[in-house]
Write a structure and sequence with these properties.
It is built from 13 helices and 19 strands. The protein is α/β, with parallel strands linked by helices. The strands form four sheets. It has a six-stranded antiparallel beta barrel. It has a five-stranded parallel β-sheet with strand order 2-1-3-4-5, with helices on both faces.
Length: 448
């Protein structure tokens, strides 16, 4: 299976801020051009606003940003400027704003930014500030992180998450609060009918299913299931793919436990390679967490349960075997087998690859939402569970984490993405009023 690229591309309106009388105002055109060049080199799509130094130019900048549906503004402050310049732009298009104050003892650029933030804060406007030259690596990293978070906000607000069936009985934490989810994070839930879906799957082409099954077998090291089970899994994938196209879904979840266990697992494996997470057990919240991590890491994610701690302060996470084949440590580990407990369908069983990871657990919380986040390091692991086990080491003991999870009422589902993206998630959470971000007692981005 081919892993397709589905990365985020921030679309940013870029300009400079100044007041014509001030020392340094003449730097405006160059600063706007330099910031545009910098963000373009970072892989962003830039809308050029040029100098913003009058109310008319501010309104024009805001309208251009609105026309292009930018995810954020990025302004380089070259000297002191009137605070209403940014306010007038935001009245036309209210998106997060990055304010980059350039050094200059006589210019007052930093003063201007600080003056503006005292206005933006009580208004509830979203903003971040950096200070330094454009060559300052720390300032550049902070700017990129914030602008990426703004893009995540825009992306998640437009997302559609399919719910095929219902959440698992007795697993209340997976129940989504549709109103709160839409208000706080943004995705819209799309209910999907199981009987119609299964009827459509049966009618899928045998020839196309056979081609996909042969491709799947070739991507694995061993196959212990019948061709009939394999063809059924491929027809299920084809039927789900049509639902995705029909409804414009960005992610979905299936109420698989117990009757559809094994029948939808390979669909999840394949769809992950297309940048579309398929969550287990009707967990809409988990699918949203997977979508967030997929966007931020540009890579398939794990849908897991917290299992038992092992040695070296590590914990095993896994589910039944619905992970992308790209998550395996090596192809020689991948075995196609029936699902545990039910002995039906096809799962891809393998130990997960190693590397830095970010873990998320998203659940409703009293008309709002709670997001628990941890960062750790995935270590080598044996097949200690028939699924896709991930062994994660944290900078704090599993015993302390178990106590933290119980105290915060976090639950048992954890979505895992490769890479440490905690700082971007922190910025994104700040852009989502009503989202409570909780982390353990260590700093998530601290090196292990």
């Amino acid at each position: 299976m081919n892993n397709q690229q589905h990365n985020l591309t921030p679309r940013v309106a870029v300009g400079s801020l100044s007041s014509p009388l001030e020392v340094g105002a003449d730097r405006g055109p160059k600063a706007a051009a330099d910031l545009k060049e910098l963000l373009t080199r970072m892989g962003m799509e830039v809308v050029d606003l040029g100098e913003v130094n009058t109310p008319d130019r501010a309104r024009t900048a805001g309208r251009l940003a609105a026309e292009r549906h930018v995810h954020a503004f990025a302004f380089a402050a070259v000297c002191w400027f009137e605070d209403y310049l940014v306010l007038d732009a935001l009245e036309e298009w209210a998106v997060p704003t990055l304010l980059w104050a350039l050094p200059g003892m006589e210019t007052g650029a930093l003063c201007g930014v600080q003056q503006l933030t005292s206005y933006l804060k009580p208004l509830g406007a979203a903003y971040a500030c950096v200070f330094g030259e454009f060559t300052d690596a720390q300032a550049r990293d902070k700017a990129k992180t914030y602008l990426t978070a703004a893009t995540v906000k825009a992306t998640m607000r437009r997302a559609r998450v399919g719910l095929l069936g219902h959440r698992v009985a007795g697993m209340t934490e997976t129940a989504a609060d549709e109103f709160a989810l839409k208000k706080v994070i943004g995705p819209r839930i799309v209910p999907l009918d199981v009987p119609q879906f299964l009827e459509a799957a049966e009618k899928e082409s045998d020839d196309e299913a056979k081609k996909l099954w042969q491709d799947t077998i070739a991507s694995a090291a061993a196959c212990k299931v019948s061709e009939a089970e394999g063809l059924d899994s491929m027809k299920v994938y084809l039927a789900i793919r049509k639902l995705i196209d029909l409804h414009g879904l960005d992610a979905l979840t299936v109420g698989c436990y117990p009757h559809l266990m094994g029948r939808v697992c390979l669909a999840a494996s394949r769809l992950a390679d297309e940048g579309i997470p398929l969550g287990c057990e009707g967990d809409v919240n988990g699918a949203v967490g997977q979508l967030l991590l997929t966007k931020l890491t540009n890579h398939p994610t794990h849908n897991t349960d917290w299992l038992d701690p092992l040695d070296a302060e590590s914990v095993v996470f896994t589910h039944c075997g619905s992970g992308s084949f790209t998550l395996a440590e090596k192809k020689e580990d991948i075995t196609l087998d029936s699902v545990r407990l039910m002995g039906q369908g096809v799962c891809a069983l393998f130990p997960a690859k190693t590397g830095p990871v970010t873990l998320l657990s998203l659940i409703p919380s009293g008309g709002a939402y709670q997001l628990a986040m941890m960062e750790g390091e995935a270590l080598p692991v044996d097949m200690v569970f028939p699924g896709n086990p991930v062994r994660v080491k944290f900078p704090v003991s599993p015993a302390a984490l178990i106590d933290w999870i119980a105290a915060e009422g976090i639950g048992h589902h954890w979505m895992i993405g490769y890479g440490h993206v905690g700082q971007t998630i922190r910025h994104w959470a700040e852009l989502c009023p009503g989202l409570r971000l909780i982390t353990p007692v260590y700093t998530p981005s601290r090196p292990l």
